[in-house]
What we know:
The protein has about 300 residues and is α/β, with parallel strands linked by helices.
Amino acid sequence: MKINLANIKKAKKLLDKRECVAVPTETVYGLAGNAYSDQACKKIFKLKKRPKNNPLIVHYFNIKKLMNDCKLNSVFLKLYDQFCPGPITFILKLKKNSKISKVATNKKGNLAIRFPKHPIIRNLLKQIEYPLAAPSANISSKVSAVSSADVKEDFGKKIKYILEGGKSSIGVESTIIDLKNKPTILRLGGIEIASIEKVLKKKIIINDNPKKISAPGQSKLHYSPGIPVRLNVEKIKNDEAYLLIKNTNKVKPNYYFLSKKGDLKEAARNLYSTLRKIKKAKYKSIAVQKIPNKGLGKTINDRLLRASKY
Length: 310
Ligand code: TXA
Ligand code: MG
């Protein structure tokens, strides 16, 4: 992807004025604002129609800039070395003198932080004096956006500017790992649990379906395409769209493939755009073939399960 410096300059100018701008990342597009500004963070909540108690992820260029705001620990440093920049988000304790807006954190003493890899947001982050609060750039509880066209579809003219960055290469959100105490996965995502376990040399607790919800992103209804989704379907109903993991010989107009040959990374990359495509084709519901529950297939299944609670 070619970097257009004039576009980045335009985004910076708006962000400097505490406006919100949509930005590309390798996972999904984000709706970004100055994380040190109450005003900018309030705008994000309003645009997204996001419940006020659902805190924002804050994006940094590198560890040096993070040190002003968060307490680091040894597990974090290991995972940072291995996976950053990349599709992983850490929950860390905030420093007392951190400048992060209390609007972003919901006044809690911890913060979700991430170092995105997409070259355009990295270039932007390098130039600005503050980190970027940026939840996924979609209306709350709906499917995330993986292209500038998706963002436009959700927000129209309500967003001042969308920084173009092509299609997101991972296509599902980051993996979230809570490092306040014992490492715990809060959301499956772009990095496989097995890769994290390999680095830490131990099994990690997964708590992505807690009885008591600490973060609304863990709530049951999420990632909804706006029409019913049925899982593990072998026989579809007449007027349903059929979402399949790989291309088959029996191509029909209502068949949608996530990948050519069943590659799970490719399937994850195509998941949200395909759900949007089906919705736009005016199908009343989506039947999903069984997806292998390994690697990124686990993340795909997590999102589809939540989408099926519609
Ligand atoms: O890939 C991603 O993570 C994308 C890109 C734009 O970086 N961002 C993203 O943000 O998915 P969002 O807001 O849609 O999802 C973040 C999730 C939410 O479910 C939120 O509840 C949770 O992270 N979260 C945020 N701060 C938290 C905290 N301090 N403790 C626990 N969960 C937190
Ligand atoms: Mg989201």
